[in-house]
């Protein structure tokens, strides 16, 4: 079984993915970590040194490689992964399930404001401007996210509840 989690940064893809993998007793993979390991550098350094176009090409290659494996796994993607290089179509074609972890803008702001220092994309954005930034970004990305097989509403739910919801959809 191949399960892919998509959603905006801070939506809980890694947290939910790890818990779900433990419950299902299958591997958890984080696409950003796979890319960093493969290229021997951090995502931030790759963006700075080689640019976003290079990164997006590599992201597409690694996504294809991971999804072409025969193993059972849960894959957490980067927030932008579904929006480039036909990646969402690739996920839908090669994975058994694609789940969109959907959170409201206020919910994302509440989570991300605490993590700004560890999030290069929003590190230098004033707290007051964060809702507008996230709103604009979500508007641009939402059409890709909404192509997922299942949409999981995540606001005001603990991770364990979300894992249970996903397990019920797996049958």
UniProtKB/TrEMBL annotation:
Binds 1 Mg(2+) ion per subunit. It is an enzyme of class 2 (transferase). InterPro entries: P-loop_NTPase (IPR027417), Shikimate/glucono_kinase (IPR031322), Shikimate_kinase/TSH1 (IPR000623). It comes from the Bacteria. Substrate binds at residues 32, 56, 79, 141. It holds the Pfam family SKI. ATP binds at residues 10-15, 119. Keywords: Amino-acid biosynthesis, Aromatic amino acid biosynthesis, ATP-binding, Cytoplasm, Kinase, Magnesium, Metal-binding, Nucleotide-binding, Transferase. This is Shikimate kinase. It comes from Arenibacter arenosicollis. The lineage of its organism: Bacteria, Pseudomonadati, Bacteroidota, Flavobacteriia, Flavobacteriales.
